[in-house]
Amino acid sequence: MEALSMLAEGFAGALTPMNLLWVVLGCLLGTAVGVLPGLGSSMAVALLLPMTFALEPTAAFIMFAGVYFGGLFGDSTMAILMNTPGQASAIASTFEGHKMAVNGRAPQALATAAIGAFIGGIVASTFVVFLAPTLAELSTVFGPAEYFALALFAFIATSSVVADSVLKGLASLVLGLGIAVVGIDAVTGTERFTLGAPQLFDGISLVTVTVAVLALGEVFYVASRVRRDPTNLKTRAAGRPWLSRKELKEAAPAWARGTAIGLPFGVIPAGGSEVPTFLAYDVERRLDRRRKNPFFGKGAIRGLAAPEAAGNSTTGMSMGALLALGLPISATAAIMLAAFRQYGLQPGPLLFDRNPDLVWALLASFFIAMVVLLAINLPFAQLWAKLLLIPKHYLYAGITLFCGLGIFATSGAVFDLLLLLGIGAIAFLMRRYGYPVAPLMIGMVLGPLAETSLRDALLSSVGDFSILVSSPITWAIYGLLFVVIAFAIRKAIISRKIKDVQEEPTLEPAT
């Protein structure tokens, strides 16, 4: 009851005209930045940080929260419409969301994403209000061995699910891991795969890889097939801007499962919302395979609903982890931690005692931001979908331009533009020959986490590999991984038998 009374006081502070204005402004800015390829909520917060020192802390952080959540909405919009996610957290939404868009269901896809983000964010904000004191206990359960097991599970599960050929999935994963290890090793100082180029000493940016693989590669692929596949997107942009009862019934379980998957990752420093979005997509794809008529690969609404709910529930919980523990789970949370320190504030348990007005007004603004973003995005889903009415040559030329501008804005280096072009060409070849891009992105995102966790675990055990299976959590993860591998092998055997039966010649009866 004490939490409810404090939250009520927080709403009283957050709903003042000026603070409400900062919430709306933050949501609009976050959404606007999120729709630009290569940019996202982390860059928006970083750019706004010096501009907000004239504001009092409560107003500044309320606006930051709106930017944080708004950036996720904007990322999803471009991921669905243009197959161009602004951040890695929106990658999983491209797989089925973009297929829905090009199949004439863009407004429904945007509505699915908006509602999923709203549900995930509201549930996470509710959990933060009531469970902030217990966040520390949950976050201390995971150690280096558990992180490595989790990354290994994501590697193998994704590689075996998203591709018809497991070998192609593993090849894509290895490519992603190879890109992730480029640069100078932080522990030994050794150059790895830099070819002597100083520009590669700091590694290859995840933003560059994401934009090249998912945006520029798509542009190249569409351009290569413009004569063979003259699809007229003008006839595909129309549609009702709401979900039917059947679609709501289809998406509701996925929203619930995605939210449940994303919540724990908000207090586990596993790289932000990338891991839970991919896991949520994986769960829905496996459930879909049990159907008589699988929908995945054709624009399955569950394949979009689950990652959107998972990403926003993780984001909401990560804000709680930042406030209650001082633990930044994502890049944006790390920037906000720096902002707290600029104001002379230290997030953690003492923040609730020393600055309760700021904390509870900020928590209340999470709920307000979710409602504002739903009001901004849901009614305008059909308007956003009209981006598909732009002729292809103008549309994809514009995407290419924004890809280059986004990458150059993040680094200011011409070399990164050359990397963008080279990786985009590789992504085109992957699409051309049927190699999935999801394992590549998983390898790129989780590769550093897996490497660091493995090293930390072995250093703490003086080289004893048994530490990797020394806890019940690792047993559970590896047991689940064994089940996934067993099902993949069983599926391959059954598919082979079916293929053999279909290819077996039939004997014609003698006349």
From TrEMBL:
Q: Does the keyword Transmembrane apply?
A: yes
**Superkingdom, natural source:** Bacteria
Which Pfam families does the protein's record reference? TctA
Q: Record keywords: Signal included?
A: no
Q: What residue ranges are annotated as transmembrane?
A: 20-39, 46-69, 109-132, 144-163, 169-188, 200-223, 321-340, 360-381, 393-421, 465-489
Q: Where is the DUF112 domain?
A: 20-442
Q: Which UniProt keywords apply?
A: Membrane, Transmembrane, Transmembrane helix
Signal peptide positions are none
Q: What is this protein called?
A: DUF112 domain-containing protein
Q: Which organism is it from?
A: Corynebacterium halotolerans YIM 70093 = DSM 44683
